[in-house]
Amino acid sequence: MTATAAPPTHKIEVENPATGQIVASVDVVGPERIPELVERARAAQPGWEVLGFEARGQLLRRCQKWVIDNSERIIETIVSETGKAWEDAQMAEVSYAASAFGFWAKNAEKYLADERVKTASPFVKGRKLIVRHVPVGVVGVIGPWNYPLTNSFGDCIPAMAAGNAVILKPSEVTPLTALLMGECVRECGIPDGVYQVAPGFGETGGALVDAVDFLMFTGSTATGKKVMERAAKTLTPLALELGGKDPMLVCADADLERAANAAVHYSMQNAGQTCISTERVYVEAPVYDQFVSLVTQKVGELRQGAPRGPGSVDLGAMIHPPQSDIVEAHVRDAVEKGARVAAGGHRSDSNGHFYEPTLLLDVDHSMAAMREETFGPTLPIMKVADADEGVRLSNDSPYGLQASIWTKDAAKGERLARRIEAGAVTVNDAQINYVALELPMGGWKSSGLGSRHGADGIRKYTKKQAIVITRLAPKRDLHMLPYSAKRTKLIARMLKLVYGRGKRD
Ligand code: NDP
Q1: Angle CA(462)–CA(465)–CA(469) in degrees, nearest 5?
Q2: Contact criterion met (CB below 8 Å) for 451 and 239
Q3: 3-state secondary structure (DSSP) of residue 495
Q4: Residue nearest atom 12 of ligand 1, based on CA coordinates
Q5: Are 48 and 194 in contact (CB under 8 A)?
């Protein structure tokens, strides 16, 4: 927070879920305080916009360096409020933020510069036509707890690069990283009021929806729908990055060793609490047994516990302890319907909150573990007759965020990828598209609306304006009042000439 006028209503006690210890106590910004923050943002925004891309880019590059110079401190903060493994905070968060500051500093102008367009309309020819991208003003970002830097603060970077002021409401579970980034932007010279943090609960998020000019939300599909409903009342434009149930399809001709390593990594990384984590695997029958044997061995070697620095554990804690209830319910439901737990399957809440890396076999689509977002360290593997069945089952889902195909035949992989209903599909890789910031990242179906990254990832934070400039023109255009039979005939001839020469089928 850059300033505090009214007293806080209450505090958020931030718990390290890997140890159960309270690591900080943070003042809540209640919904009644949101208008005050928005007013401050509106006062700061015009000066920030007028600085231009070059000057804003320089400040964002300073932030990039700050992130690298302070990377240990950022990682420690993330680990303290999430209980995730050190490497999960380093690779998927610090590395992302550093890259994003540089990317948007470099590319904001490219994506948002005025565009000159040509028209085919005979009535407009000869005019100067411009498409302009104008910052919306004040952007609200509502973030989840799984990636307090990447998925919360990360969306503020392009919003600021476009010339907006931003108010971030982090998850009540993980507000510390967002506050630390306040220190970053302040020290790097970004003007007061351009970035503000509103630690709070759902109702603070709701008030933000009402008051901002654009809202970026990341979280569950259920809450995303509530946010969209609320945004309808004020016609607040928004983008939603919601849940996923990402499938992995392993063909018989895949490099099984690489596919097994990837299945384990991309399902268990961040203890499975990633919107684009591998949530279900389909394996062609001829290689099913071999694949399962490789994965079983690798899952058995994973180390879980409270992170104590680099390399100390592979899996950390359940960041939001109630999430263990969902994971537990999915595993129980699967077992009741005939699944076999080949590894893990237990939770522990005695000393921190953990769920074991869990392998589920003999699964099918009657089970929640194959249809609903589990968002935990589980890996259900299902045998399929062939790739066609794998594609059909992959698409048998309300979600469509991300998917992966595994085959040594790249052309076949691409053909299969094009049949998958998801916003991103990788062949012989998973998740890696997320760090290519040039690519759009957004869900199909119930996985979201709009996208982050790429041109749309920054243009969404702007309003488009079309400008037409007419320099040389007659006193009266052909189509202007008053109408006359002579000019109407002339227009008819013109229409025939321009549009009437196509062949009929
Ligand atoms: P939510 O979707 O409920 O929360 C996301 C953010 O929205 C949080 O900052 C939350 O605040 C805020 N929020 C909650 N209610 C409202 C509201 N009515 N209006 C505006 N903002 C609101 O996620 P959960 O933490 O409850 O997780 C539930 C499920 O969501 C998980 O089981 C998982 O399946 C999925 N999920 C998906 C993520 C993704 O990356 N796509 C990330 C996290 C979870 P507060 O924290 O104070 O409730």
Answers
A1: 150
A2: yes
A3: helix
A4: 202
A5: yes
d(CA 159, CA 104) in angstroms, rounded, equals: 9
- CATH number (1.10.300.10, 3.90.1150.10, 3.40.309.10, 3.40.120.10) of 246-439 reads 3.40.309.10
Both tokens assigned to 259: 């596919």
Nearest CA to ligand 1 atom 38: 219
Is 15 part of the annotated catalytic residue set?
Answer: no
Task: Enter the tokens of residue 97.
Answer: 């933020």
Write the Ramachandran bin of 270: left for phi over 0, alpha for psi from -120 to 50, otherwise beta. Answer: left
Q: Give the residues surrounding ligand 1 with Cβ less than 6 Å away.
A: 142-146, 151, 169, 171-173, 201-202, 205-206, 218-220, 223, 226-227, 241-243, 275, 320, 323, 326, 373, 375
Token pair 């928005």 in the structure block, residue: 38
Q: Which CATH class is domain 11-242+453-463?
A: alpha beta
Give the model confidence (pLDDT) of 24-71 as tens digits: 999 999 999 999 999 999 999 999 999 999 999 999 999 999 999 999
State the Cα–Cα distance between residues 296 and 298, nearest whole angstrom: 6
Q: Does residue 482 have a cis bond before it (omega within 30 degrees)?
A: yes
267: its two tokens: 């399902």
Give how far the C-alpha of residue 208 lies from the chain's centroid of Cα atoms, to the nearest Å. Answer: 19
pLDDT-based confidence at 501, cuts 50/70/90?
A: confident
Give CA angle at 62 (61, 64), nearest 5°: 60
Q: Where are the domains of the chain?
A: 11-242+453-463, 246-439
Q: How far is the CA of 168 from the centre of ligand 1 (A)?
A: 14
Q: Which of 168, 169, 171, 238 to mutate to test the pocket of ligand 1 (most atoms within 8 A of CB)?
A: 171
Q: What is the pTM of this model?
A: 0.95
Residues 411-470 have pLDDT tens digits of: 999 999 999 999 999 999 999 999 999 999 999 999 999 999 999 999 999 999 999 999
Task: Write the residue with the smallest CA distance to atom 31 of ligand 1.
Answer: 220
Residues 96 and 90: their CA atoms lie apart, in Å, by 9
Q: 241 catalytic, yes or no? A: yes
| CB-based contacts of 452, cutoff 8 Å, min separation 6 | 154, 155, 158, 216, 239, 241, 440, 441, 442
The yes-or-no answer to whether 11-242+453-463 and 246-439 have a common fold is no
Residue nearest to atom 40 of ligand 1 (CA): 275
Label residue 9 by pLDDT band (50, 70, 90). Answer: low
Q: What is the DSSP string of 37-54?
A: HHHHHHHHHHHHHHHHHH
* E-strand stretches of 16-161: 22-27, 115-117, 128-135, 138-142
